[in-house]
Amino acid sequence: LVPILGDLEQSGLSLRIIGIADVEAALKFSSYTGLPLDVLRVDPDGALHQELGLHAGPGWTIPDSFPDSVLSALLSTLPGGAPEEGGQLRPVATAWLNYLAMCAGLSAPGTLQEIARGYSGDRTAPERLAPDTVVKAGFVEIGPGVGPVKLGPIKYTNAWSKEEGYQRPVELATVRLRHMVEVLSNWQSYVTNPTAIAQRGATFLFDGGGVALYEYRHRGVLTYSATMRRPLTFLTPFIGAKALNPLGLGDISVSKSA
Fold first, then answer.
1. 212 membership: H or E segment, kind and range
2. How far is CA 153 from the centre of its chain?
3. Which residues, other chains included, contact 70 with Cβ-Cβ below 8 Å and sequence gap of 6+?
4. Tens of pLDDT along 155-177?
5. Backbone angles phi, psi at 155, to 5 degrees
6. What one-character-per-residue DSSP string does 77-122 give?
7. CA distance 22 to 205
8. Which end of the chain is more exposed for a tag (fewer CB within 10 A), N or C?
9. For residue 215, which phi and psi values (nearest 5 degrees)?
10. Are 8 and 179 in contact (CB under 8 A)?
């Protein structure tokens, strides 16, 4: 969204991003993404998401007979660990249960396909990494671009390192890896309400009178648009072709169609 902020303003569209978080999380998110603070809003309890009836997984619950001690032990293996407040143990565990179910594709249409697309590549989608981008995650280093890879002492170059104009294999997975490392490294700052881990979001576009011109309610993990190859396609009537490739990177699919 950052590359099209000016385009949105020129077209008369006001951007608002509402997250289940607190002010500290908003500050962290703004610093990482480059999104200005004035477009961010926080809803610590996710009340708006619940009022809209947004998806939160298969709706599974944990039987009362399941021991708290086992739940605590299981949560200790996950980011954030077990909550200090005993009353939060089951709500947090339930949220994780439903989130992990969605990660496995349960009650989360399109999730597994989207995960696979991140690794297999997509010739109908534009590039996601600039040629000079380097992504580091622990002992993993990828780049510049999609070429050289370092896995600790192991070094190699991807066979598609010289290919351009489309989303190369592992390219989108690399982008996601960068974001995952950011979140996991700052978990306590970003995830201020772990009971909402399973809560999915939505995208709405309203006219001046508050009438919805477009809406998409997320039902999976990594599936935040009806057109994931080009997530901002719905903005084409307002900002033109830039909605199809906001980063302005290589895109042979559009070039061919033109």
1. strand 212-217
2. 30
3. none
4. 999 999 999 999 999 999 999 99
5. -130, 140
6. TSTT-S-SSGGGHHHHHHHHHHHHHHHTTTT-TTHHHHHHHHHH-B
7. 24
8. C
9. -150, 145
10. no
